[in-house]
Amino acid sequence: MKLDRLRRSDTKRCAEIEQVLFPGDDPWSARAFHSELDQGHFYLAARTDDGTELLGYGGLAVVGRRGEYEAEIHTIGVVPEAQGQGIGKALLRALLERADEVSAPVFLEVRTDNDTAVGLYERHGFEKLGIRKRYYQPSGADAFTMARPARTPARDEVAG
Asked: Deepest in the core among 9, 40, 132, 135, taking most CB within 10 A?
């Protein structure tokens, strides 16, 4: 598996994966992924070693101004047949590295019943801040809001 930038040509496949992963909610469309890319958000693709198949994707938005940045993980998705192979973890770590480059705290929402994802986030320094009732629609599922404090890039720690 290899990670690289998500391309506009990947958005149709991302939308297909969303339909499989989030059938009871409002899965993102190809247009939604296009909009994220058009806004300049940081999106990665996880591909097979030969690059022919999209296995997953993840996206991060960094907002604010220098010294006051905040980041939000907008999505992470992995095709069901590739789950449990470390792809979600690799995507998450790469997104967190990007946030760490600008010393941004990171926020996200995750379904309260998604124990696997909640555990992954907690193992990477996220804490639950609260619950957003009926956050996911149309299912009405609740979401935890989680956050990880800002971290200084490793190169600054060495240089400092």
From this structure: 135
Output the pTM of the full model.
0.91
Tell me the C-alpha distance between 73 and 80, whole Å.
20
Which one of the listed residues 109, 122, 136, 157 is annotated catalytic? 109
CATH code, domain carrying 103 = 3.40.630.30
The pLDDT of residue 35 is 97
Query: Cβ atoms within 10 A of the Cβ of 28, count?
Result: 23
* 24: containing domain: 2-159
Q: Which of 57, 121, 135, 136 is catalytic?
A: 121
Instruction: Determine whether 69 is an active site residue.
Output: no
CB atoms within 10 A of CB 40: 9
In total, how many domains does the chain have?
1
121 is catalytic: yes
